[in-house]
Amino acid sequence: MTRNHTVLDSPFGPLTLVATDGVLSGLYMTGQRHRPAEETFGERGGAPALDEAARQLGAYFAGERTAFELPLHLAGTPFQRRVWECLLRIPYGETRSYGELAGELGNRGASRAVGLANGRNPIGIIVPCHRVVGSSGGLTGYGGGLDRKRRLLAFERGAPDGTLF
């Protein structure tokens, strides 16, 4: 298994992109909960997947892209991967509650398990875990911090000042 990484500046702080065997496997924010140790990220550069991910993220932050077209290596349990696949179907600028995602998975009572899986998402922003909110629509936990979550949602809704509602 070969791992490579790069660090990309963004409006939301530095983002560390990681590729495993040439496929994007991580996007981590500074101070992110459940962020792997730096020494697991591998050599710096050397993977075309990192360049393509950086290009698409640049277009996203410029307001020119609302969806990503990248092969992803999502390493997790089968349940986590099912949750992350659901996240990929949440449209840009929209949100879903943990309960709605649990219902989509066939178990409306699994909202807490969905939240735990959401928190372990290894490819933030691209796999849009920031688009998941509490049942009342309020902001709840986010591995990158609630301020980043609020700012990402406001950005996608065209409110650059960070106002959500």
Automatic annotation (TrEMBL):
Iron-sulfur is among the record's keywords: no
The protein's enzyme class: transferase
Signal sequence segment: none
Domain called Methylated-DNA-[protein]-cysteine S-methyltransferase DNA binding: residue spans: 78-157
Catalytic activity field: a 4-O-methyl-thymidine in DNA + L-cysteinyl-[protein] = a thymidine in DNA + S-methyl-L-cysteinyl-[protein]; a 6-O-methyl-2'-deoxyguanosine in DNA + L-cysteinyl-[protein] = S-methyl-L-cysteinyl-[protein] + a 2'-deoxyguanosine in DNA
CDD domains xref list: ATase
Residue ranges occupied by any Methylguanine DNA methyltransferase ribonuclease-like domain in the UniProt entry: 5-73
Active site residues according to the UniProt entry: 129 (nucleophile)
EC number: 2.1.1.63
Keywords: Cytoplasm, DNA damage, DNA repair, Methyltransferase, Transferase
Localization per record: Cytoplasm
A Pfam family the protein falls into: Methyltransf_1N
Entry function: Involved in the cellular defense against the biological effects of O6-methylguanine (O6-MeG) and O4-methylthymine (O4-MeT) in DNA. Repairs the methylated nucleobase in DNA by stoichiometrically transferring the methyl group to a cysteine residue in the enzyme. This is a suicide reaction: the enzyme is irreversibly inactivated.
Additional free-text comment from the UniProt record: This enzyme catalyzes only one turnover and therefore is not strictly catalytic. According to one definition, an enzyme is a biocatalyst that acts repeatedly and over many reaction cycles.
Protein family (similarity comment): Belongs to the MGMT family.
Annotated protein name in UniProt: Methylated-DNA--protein-cysteine methyltransferase
Taxonomic path: Bacteria, Bacillati, Actinomycetota, Actinomycetes, Kitasatosporales
